[in-house]
Amino acid sequence: MAKLAFNSKFSESHFSKNLDVFVGLSGGADSIALLHYLNEMNKSNEIGSLKAIHVNHGHSPESKKWENFCKDFCNNQNIEFTATSITNLDSTASLEGSFRKARFKIFANIIRTPGVLALGHHMNDQVETILFRMFRGSGPEGISGINEVSILNEIKVLRPMLKIEKDEIYEYVEKHNLEYIHDHSNDDEQFDRNFIRGRLIPLISERWPAAIKKISDLSELSQQDIEFKNIFLEQRIEEFRSESGLKISSLSKLSEIERTNIIRHWIKKNGFSQPNRKTQLEIEKIFFCSQTTSNSSVQWSRADNAQKSCKMFTDKKSLIIKEP
Questions:
Q1: Less crowded by CB within 10 Å, the N or C end of the chain?
Q2: Within 13 A of 298's CA, how many CA atoms are on the CB side?
Q3: So what's the pLDDT on residue 86?
């Protein structure tokens, strides 16, 4: 029997027979397909062990029903299952950002090395993320999209379905007679991501049928360019280090584009959120185009609080960054 498109595009390269895999299971088609596929790998001893984690957000009257669905699915498939509820949300972030932060805190409390977290993001999610970040004004790293492998809250996260389109996921679950749930809050187009998913992507695909694949390819090329640039910047940044930060006198001798890239790499390396274009111009103006004082500073944060907020200031010799 010929392989389904799903099977041929699922990325297995980061999995091994010694690796314990935890799947973030919402009960939607994406995570159900992911868990089912990994369970087949587990039966063939291609991974060390398989466990599912369901996070009950409590945002819907059906939340408990969804939790029970996930539990029953795992019981029927003989998969170890854990469910936990979100109790405290970060009130300073958006609702989506608060849930995301809470989920990863829960994952971090459950998963231990050498375990990895597998998530069901797919090609349409990648395109949705790129468009959302473009409209928000993100820089090149932001619009490079979602990485197949990343580290979040000290957890290694794998997203093996980024080359698989949503329709191929539906084909997979139908082929294997897998039930799944639908969260109707994902249809509410007052939320930006839902609007992009429900309106923009279908409209773009109708006009340009290959657009989803082409935008996904752009993400992959961008990530390769960024990886190469980071290797170069990591070597270069040593020229500018001081005890407290980066030497302003040395940075001042660079062109603006060189200086911007050095500073952004330094910020990222220290775990802070990246400044947007407007903030980057403000940094350039305050620290390199005018006379700085002890009160000179620039401060920024991400709306979703996914990374640390940052305050940049100077002791007149060095640029310094810290949390506000």
A1: N
A2: 19
A3: 85
Is residue 24 a contact partner of residue 55, using CB atoms and an 8 Å limit? yes
**Which is higher by pLDDT, 140 or 267?**
267
Residues 78 and 37 sit within 8 Å (Cβ to Cβ): no
160-161-163-166 Cα dihedral, nearest 10 degrees: 180
Find the mean pLDDT for residues 127-141: 88
CB 86 within 8 A of CB 102: yes
Spatial CA neighbour of 170 closest among 122, 119, 127: 122
Up-side HSE of residue 307: CA atoms within 13 Å toward CB? 17
DSSP string, 20-87: EEEEE--SSHHHHHHHHHHHHHHHTTSSSEEEEEEEE---STTHHHHHHHHHHHHHHHT-EEEEEE--
- Name the segment(s) of the chain with CATH classification 3.40.50.620: 5-216
- Relative to beta strand 297-300, strand 49-56 is unpaired
For 113-246, where are the alpha helices, taking DSSP H only? 123-136, 166-175, 192-195, 201-207, 211-236
- CA–CA–CA angle 287, 293, 298 (5° rounding): 50
CB contact set of 198 (below 8 Å; sequence gap of 6+): 187, 189
Q: Quote the pTM value.
A: 0.85
Per-residue pLDDT at 143:
86
Place of tokens 């597998």: 118
Residue reference for tokens 């603006």: 256
Domain 5-216: assigned CATH number: 3.40.50.620
Note whether 86 and 106 are within 8 A (CB). yes
Looking at residue 122, what DSSP letter applies? B
Q: In sequence order, what are the beta bridge partners of 318?
A: 247
22: DSSP letter = E
Bridge partners of 161, per DSSP, are 122
- Give the chain's length: 324
